[in-house]
């Protein structure tokens, strides 16, 4: 989302698109919103959405979720970590789901900032309970390339791998994760 969601009308436009596409859970990054909040927003057409976000105090970064009315009551807990990491627990059958939304520092940030981010992300996903499914999503500011890498990166990655892509692959390897959008052809 260019320029974040702090411009009038952008949130409503996004909620309309989410509604039109029947998306129940949308992770958002670069909201550029301050503080943290959890509120209900209604479209003129009466569809309701729950917005949960963490934005820090600088109007930079910012992460969150937009949840449809169908799923909003299934949220059993919210974990606000930072302006780059937020998580929710969803009560579901047959297993509950632990969803983490993140926004990775860009390539121009210091190695220390990137290492700190991955440390925070690591401690957040370690809050997943044994009987939960983990979904990690977000803006990883990375390119993975188009080479299949074990069970982590599928055959449909894009571009030429950059350092952030290698960092993401290393993190996925460490936590036995795979990058789902590389396993199907992009349209």
Automatic annotation (TrEMBL):
<dbReference type="Pfam" id="PF03372">
    <property type="entry name" value="Exo_endo_phos"/>
</dbReference>
<protein>
    <submittedName>
        <fullName>Craniofacial development protein 2</fullName>
    </submittedName>
</protein>
<feature type="domain" description="Endonuclease/exonuclease/phosphatase">
    <location>
        <begin position="6"/>
        <end position="147"/>
    </location>
</feature>
<dbReference type="GO" id="GO:0003824">
    <property type="term" value="F:catalytic activity"/>
</dbReference>
<dbReference type="InterPro" id="IPR005135">
    <property type="entry name" value="Endo/exonuclease/phosphatase"/>
</dbReference>
<dbReference type="InterPro" id="IPR036691">
    <property type="entry name" value="Endo/exonu/phosph_ase_sf"/>
</dbReference>
<dbReference type="InterPro" id="IPR027124">
    <property type="entry name" value="Swc5/CFDP1/2"/>
</dbReference>
